[in-house]
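Figure 2 data, in text form.
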Amino acid sequence: MAEQKVIHTDILIIGGGTAGCMAAVEAKERSPKSSVTILEKAHVDRSGCLAGGMNAINAYINKGETVDRFVDYVRSDACGLIREDLVRTMAELFEYGVKRVEKWGLPILCDEKGDYIPRGRWNIKINGESLKPILARAARSAGAQIYNWIVVTNLLMDQDRVVGAVGFSLRSGALYVVQAKATIVATGGAAGLYRPNNVGDASHKTWYSPYNTGAGFAMGIRAGAEMTSFEMRYVALRTKDTIAPTGTIALGVSAPQINAKGERFMATRYADIGGDGAPTPYRTYGPLMEMKEGRGPVYLDTRGLSAEQTRALRAAYLDMYPSMVLYWAANGIDPAKVPIEVQTTEPYIVGGHCQSGYWVDVNRKTTLEGLYAAGDVSGGAPYKFVSGCWAEGVMAARAALDGMAQSPLPHVPESQIRLEEERAFAPLKRHLRHGVTPPDLEARLQKIMEQYAGGASTYYEMNEEMLGIARTHLAQLPTECEYLVASDLHQLMKAHEVIDRVDVAQVLVEHLSFRKETRWPSYQTRVDYPKRDDANWLKFVNSRRDKSGTIEMFTRPY
């Protein structure tokens, strides 16, 4: 039996990333006497998607723009389907969050009049290498109690109400039992469901944080929360090998896409879908088709940049992706003379760029009493980026405070804690020679998803037969999870990451199968239903898993 640490708190925040830190500050400043606890799998100073920094705030209402226009833009960019109430309420709080973080020390670039400098229509430029430490410092200064290196394995339930969570320490192995009046899940999305672009030692050179493994989704799925839009996966267009963001080049220095023949293909070959101004899924689909049809590789044409533009480009990458600059230096690449090759990534489940996640109300309350969701784990509102995650952290904190005031003291049966302790530590207790290691099961999961559920090697395409095969193979994996072994606490964490991704993958395949259209090409390409069908599918595909493990699929109206 592990050493047990029991913590009682008013608000528990699972995940100390972008949304989690902002939620903690908002809760403590609005209710200083309330106790707020963060459980973070890594270290809050450099955890989550912002660990390496950012060079822009990618969602902001610049001068001359309005919230209404932003909602219209996001609806168009998401191919006509969004939760407009969620997008609107987050957009209304963009400025609130940005101004707060600027006050805490974030350098935002301004012109001679003191106005923020735009980078594209909805972006503003920042020097954000230290963005995550700034957020962590603010959460600590506000008085939040932060526990680093805690792997949360499951939610605690009082009948149908969420009343906290259970996890273990990566340092001591102690079991943490945190009972809370309100819980906010802010763990980010899911990487690692599909085989990554790079292999071996470079397998973690991915676009999305490889340590965001769908834990927040999985614990909600197991508890019976309603989920939405998992089929709207995110496939990013990124620089070859380094997988660095391409917006820094495309927006920063206005570099167009060209194919191997030097053709600016988006404006001509894909003019019917908007050309260079097409919705984001099509801006991935276009270069993907160029490569599939033999006109690749595809590049961002940076040739002819001035010395000042080249310097600014390198400086921008140093704020968020320094390995890009190191790659250029190590390989003798001058972006002013050589176009930058790009490629598509493996699919991710991300509620910030797309809208996969918990089905929430306008206050970011989930369908489970006592549970709120913010950031990449919250569904229905794409185009969040950093500022949208801050906005949802603020809204979730405010709602949690209101809900907490009406909540009875949680009651958690000791038997529930013991069962979760047994489940959490089971891989450590199994004989290493007679079990399955986390890397082996991870490889099995990724192979199934890659080959049958629309991976990069199939050009993200799928049909009902392929998804049926994926469903059959995935059904075997929960049993195989019962044979997972771990030699130490780090491997125990890896075991739970695989378990969580299996639960997420099963829900994802059901979503991909249920939507009988292609609404987001490359994100969700059904070759047996190749057209967008607004007459029948302008609605949300949702799911709920019951206690037997059966996944119920249904729709919600637009």
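Caption note: The CA atoms of residues 211 and 483 lie 23 Å apart.
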